[in-house]
Design brief:
Layout (H helix, E strand, L loop, with lengths): L11 H5 L3 H9 L4 H6 L27 H10 L8 H15 L6 E4 L3 H11 L5 E6 L4 H9 L3 E5 L8 H7 L3 E7 L11 H10 L5 E5 L12 H5 L4 E6 L12 E4 L2 H11 L6 H12 L3 H16 L8 E2 L6 E3 L31 E2 L9
Parallel strand pairs: 2-3, 2-4, 4-5, 5-6
Antiparallel strand pairs: 1-7, 6-7, 8-9, 9-10
Amino acid sequence: MSQNKTLRNDSRRTFLQMSVAAAAASAFRIVNEPLLAAAAIDRERKQFPPGAVVINANENPLGPCDAARAAVVSMAPQGGRYSYWLTDELVDTFAQQQGLKREYIRAFPGSSEPLHFSVLAFTSPSRSYATADPGYESGMHAAKISGARVVNVPLTKFYAHDIRAMLAAAPDAGLFYVCTPNNPTGTLTPHADIEQLVAKKPNGSVVLVDEAYIHFSDGVTALDLVKADQDVIVLRTFSKIYGMAGLRCGFAIARPDLLAKLENCGGWSALPITAVAAATASLKHEHLVSERKLLNTTVRQNTCPRKPTFSWSIPSAPLKKSSTPWPRRMSSSAASGPSGRPTRASPSAPKRKWMRSSPPSTPS
């Protein structure tokens, strides 16, 4: 590993302005987690060296479950067909499991597209975009395209979204973005706080709840607010606990009229049938989520008390905040295990050294 070039000191924001990654972002106008991670990597490196612990893109090293892998293999020969009905089966499966109407669900290649489209649909130069700091940065890049004012509101002392402060700071908001468990802190925002946001938000605005990491926690989903026909969009992805980041599949869940506005921004097309087959098989795996959640929790509990070679302090909320600079590369001996919850630094808090960690096993 010593023969390979190290990660640069440039922040991802600086690097995005001048790199190939920036050119890609400009062309496709969607800045997602893989692109943010790539922006911090030396572009001359073709791949990570064998045995490296890759923690910069929140990928799940376990990959898809066996049933999903088998589904991919069996579906590959049919790759010459669009097979739209496979997406219908995926949506029907999720709808049945969650008690949703199928017309309230749209499948996308991951959750990055619906996040991006939500910002474009509901923000403008006169309707701001409110988000947490530190928080997931993708929506802020989309807001630059819509011309919206970006309102960054610090988390509370318990590292939850400060709903009152968000309402006060963005009375003109078109979209409130709540990522729970939060990226990068891994902490929960109570469901009651999200309900308060929905009740007190400006008329015509929308609350976007990103539940990419909900399966790693005991947090309460916001799907009940969608079922109640509130101005709420919930995002789900198969990239995290299901280990399908490279296959790309996810959902936007909301009232049909809200989903229609997302489609107006980006349209809709056939999804990769291998991804759809793998996602359907993953949903039908009865114990997959519980098994991987238990594994992640066990590894986290075994790792934190042992104090690895780098040091950290653990506040009352389950956030890990590094007290020393992170090594630019980690060997396998420094890994916390195959938990599926890698970490990366957040440029939204340049004076801090944040470490993305596993969400809490109980609501904070």
